[in-house]
Amino acid sequence: MTNYDSPNGFGQRKFSINRNTGVPRPARRFSMGQSEASSKVHRQFRAAHEGHLPHAGLDASRASTGVVWCTERAAEYGFFDEPEKWANLGQGAPEADDDIEGCFKRPTTIDIGSASREYGPTAGIKPLREAVARLYNEMHRQGKPSQYTWENVAIVPGGRAGLIRIAAVLNNAYVGFFIPDYTAYNEMLSLFKNFAAIPVPLSEEDGYHIHPNKIAEEISRGTGVILTSNPRNPTGRLVQNPELAEIQNLCRGRATFVSDEFYSGYNYTSGCDGSTVSAAENVVDVDEDDVLIIDGLTKRFRLPGWRVAWILGPKEFIKAIGSCGSYLDGGTNVPFQEAAIPMLDPALVRAEMAALQRHFRDKRDYVVARLRSMGFVIRHVPDSTFYLWLNLEGLPAPISDGLNFFQACLDEKVIVVPGIFFDLNPSRRRDLFDSPCHHFVRFSYGPKMDVLKMGCDGIERVINKFKKLTAQGHSATTNGITHGITNGIKTDTEAIED
């Protein structure tokens, strides 16, 4: 029965302690105070995701993902005019230059033969498919009777294209996905009508961990496909064995497990020895287990501009995924496929991953220390990826949500991504202030160290500026109250308005 003893009937609602700030808070957040209508940047966000209504054939909300929207807003502040003066901590890309100690040199020229001028197979060229299969067998399937072959690999023009191809071949099913997770899943999950997308919220209290019992719950209610990033974007968390194996055991024969492993190289759990975590290790039969793995050159090989990625899975899946490329994207650039083959030598990859892990672990430790010194509470230091999922609730009220913090950072030439983008499809579901991701931003430590230092300096200026404004406001309020009591003339509200 509804309790009417308090506004909105929430009088009997239980309260819990916010572990980041130590302050009691409702067990579930509702926009009882602020709402979208009270914040300019929130209204701008909503307007940008409604579409241009006069054009009946256009739904512009499908044309903007988180990073794109943030970059467009930064452009209004001069980002494209002087990008070298900005700290772009929003772009989900690693530094791409050849100055990381221990990493191999990337090609600066590519030999283009006459054969590679022709259309290539939409599933990718056979030599690269063979190289990918060999890499996974060497790193994750040694001694196992079932081995990947080139027929278990499809080459795709980037991770997003891979996701779209997978979505295109899925049968009628419930697709379970987790919140927060990768922003581009939003488009994948909304464009196709052959399945129903089911969100599964994860808890901040236990570090957004995907427990096997969550998977069991989804399967028990009929979910036929489980989609997740692992390592996880944006939280920087990793599901390892034996839990990963348990999850795959639960899915075996019951659900297709889609594992987005683009950050698999950024693994800090094994002493930066170059090892990676992959669902490939727990596959029993490569042609029977419904496990689809997505990865590529983009992140761990630091070649986002090449747009060369791959999908591993059972031959039947791969045949369909390769075929649908003929009408979805036309296939991957052939010369870059050829140039990628030598990079996938297992010994070279292992050494590359070790150098990568040491370098990015050091950057992680730097930004964590800087942000903690500013007052951020980081309960869970990332054990993978190059992202920090920053809780803003301890900051001054005007910048304690992702959109307003993002807006304030633009004034200091810093770009971060508001957490609302990782609450998949938020602009159509509820008031933005109600989202569990509303009080977060994603901070990328993918850029070079000098950019990270510049970005941390800018964020520190934002924090100090708003702390000062808050202190001044508190002082003005206190003085106004004292003045009103003493003179019997002005109330505290009148003093603030003055």
UniProtKB/TrEMBL annotation:
InterPro entries xrefs? Aminotransferase_I/II_large, AspAT/PAT-like, PyrdxlP-dep_Trfase, PyrdxlP-dep_Trfase_major
What the entry lists under Gene3D superfamilies is as follows:
Type I PLP-dependent aspartate aminotransferase-like (Major domain)
User: Which cofactor(s) does the record list?
Assistant: pyridoxal 5'-phosphate
From which domain of life does this come? Answer: Eukaryota
Region described as Disordered: spans on this chain: 1-26
Q: Name one Pfam family in it.
A: Aminotran_1_2
Q: Which UniProt keywords apply?
A: Aminotransferase, Pyridoxal phosphate, Transferase
Domain (Aminotransferase class I/classII large): residue spans on this chain: 86-430
Protein family (similarity comment): Belongs to the class-I pyridoxal-phosphate-dependent aminotransferase family.
Protein name as it appears in the record: Aminotransferase class I/classII large domain-containing protein
Please give the organism: Remersonia thermophila
Provide the taxonomic classification.
Answer: Eukaryota, Fungi, Dikarya, Ascomycota, Pezizomycotina
